[in-house]
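Would you kindly consider the sequence and fold I have copied below?
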Amino acid sequence: MSIEILKASSVTKRFGAMVAVNRVDFTLYEHDVAGIIGSNGAGKTTFFNLLTGLFAPEEGSILHKGVDVTRMTPQQRVARGITRTFQLTSTFDTLSVTDNLVLAYYRAFHKASMWNLFFTKMKRFHDEPKIISILETFDLLPVRDRMVKNLSLGEKRRLEIAMAVLAEPEVLLLDEPLAGLAESEIKGVLAVLRRHIGKQTILIVEHKISHVQDFVQRLMVMHEGRVIAEGGYEECLNHPEVRKSYWQIDDSATENSSNG
């Protein structure tokens, strides 16, 4: 029996008169590699923000391993092992790749304020086995001493995900990590993420279904705040409502035309 890691029940989020997320149910199981897709404005990022605590729902509940976290802050959820990345990379551009990883490591494993770290010698952590291992895993060793502001977007995205993974979260939540990347960079990011399949529970929010078709094990498709399909890739791809709302393919119109 799979362990329920995250469970959202009838969650609803409104912004004024607009219902961004409309009574959504979703369960993420241990070691799942799941994806949430949908067109712009579908509600997928808002729902993601509900899961991570950036927003609180007006209705419904969110459980983490059976514990109600609906009103917990993002920081409290991180402490429980739920770590997210944002659409825009959240790194320190004027520090090196290694120093960014040291900050992430220090925050995760030493529980002291980051301000204190600026008064210690960060270089003493540069050869920490976990730092070296994560540099190798995410193919960042060649750029370990480079300032983040001088990285390519793909390298910066790998660094951000590496910083999240370094904290050893039980659940890794990725908000459009492939946005703006070239095809070769997308392959690089997915290649390093594949190494964590079976080790971590992964949820990825993505706009383009083609980017994640060979990565995710199951999908949830959203449209106008609602879940319109959930299941395997092919199953969702061929769902009539997905074909109509996501691909703008109206099967009924095609059928009527062929019958006419």
